[in-house]
Amino acid sequence: MAEKYEYEYFNVTFPVEYVAHIEISRPEKLNAFIEKMWLNLSVIVKRLSHDPNVRSIILTGAGDRAFTAGLDVQAASQGTLSQGSSDTARTATALRRHIFEFQDCITALEKCEKPIIAVLHGVSYGLALDLSLSCDIRLCAADTRFSVKEVDIGIAADIGTLSRLPKAVGNFSWVKDVALSARIFGSAEAEKVGLVSGVYGGKAEAVSEALKLATLIASKSPVAVQGTKELLNYSRDRSVEEGLRYTAIWNQAMLQTKDMKDAMLSGLQKKTPKFSKL
Predict the structure, then answer these.
(1) Is residue 107 within 8 Å of 134, Cβ to Cβ?
(2) 2-218: CATH class
(3) In CATH, what is the architecture of 222-269?
(4) Chain segment 190-239, per-residue pLDDT in tens
């Protein structure tokens, strides 16, 4: 199975049944992203989303120093950002298309049918927030250093942080504090505001805990897990009434599945249910 997922700058492994592990692998550059990386990540996530052998995913960064330092600014300055036209409308059109493509690649994590657990450690700047906020669960090591770094390079964050961070933490004053200042904050502050749901002593411990959680999620009905992620994400951006209506429409099909019968029966019989691949 691992041989099917060979993409430059990423290691994809399958540590236990139904769990995939995506490791960002450019440690010599603090896992900073170049264009090929976000394009490859999108392909990987979309494939895992439809892979019946996968029910949950872990996302980590290689090495001890960083989850990711964000966008490789030097590479970006020599790529699309440097290829301007003398005509502002044409330059703006090219940049808009480029930004939309980048956004779509990161949003692929949010749209993935399988829950994704991000495990952050060390340097976790800029794009690290965009990536992890598109994931479903965020854990981190005690040494994690976060920063919404974009104002320090002269731009407003445009890949997702400014849209998702306020909804993830529920404290708009704090969001503006870190987004406007680009100040570095640590794991304790991240946990306090709800950016992460767990802080662990080191990277290895954090990854181990993520694997336990991913394994637990993978043991549940894949129909129920997929539906729960879909309905939570839908309801986050809409009214309670809209969320309830969509839930009813979704479950009018999902309540007919064999998974529900097996889960209920296993509870009565005190047995561990086994669910078919989805």
Answers:
(1) yes
(2) alpha beta
(3) Orthogonal Bundle (1.10)
(4) 999 999 999 999 999 999 999 999 999 999 999 999 999 999 999 999 99
